[in-house]
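Input record (one chain):
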Amino acid sequence: MDLILWRHADAGDALADAEADFSRPLSDRGRKQSARVAHWLLARLPERCRVISSPAPRARQTAEALGLKLRLDDRLAPGAPGSLLLEVAGWPQGQEGRARHVVLIGHQPSLGEAVSLAMGATGQPWTVRKGSVLWLSARLADHGGYSVSLRAVIGPDLV
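The corresponding structure, as predicted from the sequence alone:
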């Protein structure tokens, strides 16, 4: 399966109040970042893919830039453990009868933890910058497990 992890685009600085922070929308800069990265992704994604987003407005608005059918999942909300993100995606084997490409839109540090776990590391989580995409692929290996490769890492400033 292919797992595309996309951190929400710029929404300004985090707020101390958790409820207000959750409700932050994208900034003008963030909307532009989302549009650029969405254009890059759409040129590479297959017709059939699943798009799953955190319900936080900044993540949902980032995902909406793709213009594809979108499912919101409370399990991707800020503060979710990276292992839960991988579970939601069905990593690494995918889910029977489902699209082999899954795009998850979420938050730091959850996405960085998910990347670290998916790559088989248990140490420091990755740092994923706002608006950036990490594309991972898992394939069955000869030994019966999965071989994981990092296909792309791209930020909104590079597209």
